[in-house]
Task: inverse folding
């Protein structure tokens, strides 16, 4: 337990106030915001430079996945029956929209530090910016996809309403979730490479335990409650409420909102301590 | 003369694990697992502004570890390094992104080094001019030869105008013409009072360019002084080492390795 003890019980000698790491990490994100955005742009370029269709793949991939999921889970299994008055395709699209951002961002985020630290160790920006620029490189395609979704919904029966105002809130919450998890997994994966495998396995499972592909309302209440432990549930339902359900999700489910932000706070707090504690030694773990 | 780099009692410990599970246990349990190995055993020296210091020593003597520590890429386990101003390391593997073009790499690296957009705009043509890659500047770096890569890396590192420059074997891949160009640039740096560290196996290049030499043996400073004083001793050692039988060479290396695993930083 040496590892966890040294992480969680900062020794008195370095005088680390428990909140200090959290503040440091957040401040680093704000101070290097411009640089993080630029690096995210280079990241997008670097990934797509090899393909003939380049950036188009950022949209083609989701389109292919969306159509196959609609065929299996919508057409084949549900006979396209609407979900609480919302056409299944719309319902699915809203859920997948979150997933298309969260899945690659978490996957690439977890490898972000150990694949880049050699190159970045000497640069004048903090290591905590690495998982965050990788996340932002996945956020830009999300914006485009979001715009496309809004246009499609507008002209196929779910027009823009006042409830769209909560979209920025849920977008921000998603960014916080991804950043927090990436900060933890990218640090741990550098120290113990197996963490990367765990992230992959969890992601493969996560799409089925989140309300993305199938409707969970018919399940017993306690099962639904357990499913709500997954913070992604909150975000996906939030996006859907903004698009179709015409309610203020984060106010109506205020207790869920409190749960989500408490969880984020605890994870971000632990993640910051972990990251700040180990960041100077990360290069030795390569 | 003003001091520009102060290295004090620097030791670098690596852990050698025989299997993955040992590494895991070492991380989790309070007991120490795995064998300790000191790549550097209490290295101390001071460099003045305008010094050009060559690191010499056989393979595995700690030259690259020391340059990485001075460059701030790897933290020392014990001891400390003080560098006045900005340092830049130029190595053969200079951390370029293979999927981006040379030009994009220049922009990316300068941004990461903390230059603003405007500064990058003025630096870019200078770097492109120095690297002299012609049309290849807009091709992805993965299509470059190793010489071209090191030229680009070198061009970026010298144009950003560091105060301390560390060159780790980077000139050995370039052609004669480019090496001459680099030496010119470094002589210019020397005149400006920058400190340069030079790691190379080429004794000729070393003698031509360096004023001082730091001889490392098994992670310890064996000799530090004027190149005229140190180099003959080193060459004599090399000659003696080469003359040894295989068995004697092995025994010599074994003795060094034993010293490196038995080192105790608290006693020195």
Result:
């Amino acid at each position: 337990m040496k590892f966890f003890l040294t992480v969680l019980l900062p020794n008195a000698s370095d005088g680390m106030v428990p909140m200090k790491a959290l503040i440091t990490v957040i401040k680093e994100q704000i101070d290097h915001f411009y640089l993080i955005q630029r690096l995210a742009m280079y990241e997008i370029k670097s990934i797509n430079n090899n393909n003939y269709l380049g950036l188009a793949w950022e949209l083609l991939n989701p389109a292919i996945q969306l159509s196959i999921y609609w065929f299996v889970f919508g057409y084949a299994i549900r006979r396209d029956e609407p979900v609480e008055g919302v056409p299944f395709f719309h319902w699915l699209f809203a859920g997948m929209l979150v997933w298309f951002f969260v899945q690659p961002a978490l996957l690439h985020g977890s490898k972000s530090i150990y694949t880049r630290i050699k190159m970045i160790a000497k640069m004048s920006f903090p290591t905590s910016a690495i998982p965050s620029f990788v996340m932002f490189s996945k956020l830009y395609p999300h914006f485009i996809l979001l715009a496309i979704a809004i246009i499609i919904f507008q002209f196929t029966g779910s027009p823009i309403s006042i409830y769209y105002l909560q979209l920025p809130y849920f977008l921000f919450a998603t960014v916080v979730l991804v950043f927090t998890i990436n900060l933890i997994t990218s640090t741990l994966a550098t120290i113990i490479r197996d963490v990367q495998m765990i992230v992959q396995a969890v992601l493969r499972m996560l799409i089925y335990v989140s309300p993305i592909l199938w409707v969970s309302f018919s399940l017993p209440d306690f099962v639904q409650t357990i499913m709500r432990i997954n913070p992604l549930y909150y975000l996906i339902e939030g996006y859907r409420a903004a698009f179709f359900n015409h309610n203020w999700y984060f106010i109506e489910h205020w207790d869920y909102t409190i749960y989500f932000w408490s969880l984020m706070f605890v994870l971000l707090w632990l993640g910051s301590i972990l990251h700040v504690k180990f960041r100077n030694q990360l290069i030795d773990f390569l | 003369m003003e001091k520009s780099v102060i290295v004090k009692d620097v030791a670098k410990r690596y852990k050698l694990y025989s299997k993955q599970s040992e590494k895991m246990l070492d991380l989790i349990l309070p007991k120490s697992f795995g064998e300790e190995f000191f790549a550097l055993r209490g290295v101390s020296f001071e460099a003045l502004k305008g010094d050009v210091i060559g690191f010499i020593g056989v393979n595995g003597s700690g030259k690259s570890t020391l340059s990485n520590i001075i460059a701030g890429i790897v933290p020392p386990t014990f001891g400390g390094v003080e560098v006045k101003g900005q340092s830049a390391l130029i190595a053969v593997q200079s951390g370029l992104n293979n999927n981006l073009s040379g030009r994009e790499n220049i922009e990316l690296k300068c941004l990461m080094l903390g230059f603003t957009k405007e500064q990058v705009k003025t630096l870019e043509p200078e770097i492109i001019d120095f690297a002299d890659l012609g049309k290849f500047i807009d091709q992805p770096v993965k299509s470059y030869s190793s010489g071209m890569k090191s030229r680009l890396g070198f061009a970026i590192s010298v144009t950003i105008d560091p105060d301390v420059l560390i060159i780790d074997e980077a000139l050995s891949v370039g052609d004669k013409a480019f090496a001459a160009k680099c030496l010119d640039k470094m002589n210019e740096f020397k005149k400006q009072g920058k400190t340069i560290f030079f790691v190379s196996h080429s004794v000729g290049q070393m003698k031509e360019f360096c004023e001082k030499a730091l001889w490392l043996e098994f992670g310890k400073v064996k000799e530090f002084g004027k190149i005229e004083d140190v180099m003959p001793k080193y060459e004599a050692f090399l000659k003696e080492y080469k003359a040894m039988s295989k068995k004697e060479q092995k025994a010599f290396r074994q003795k060094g390795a034993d010293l490196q695993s038995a080192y105790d930083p608290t006693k020195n």
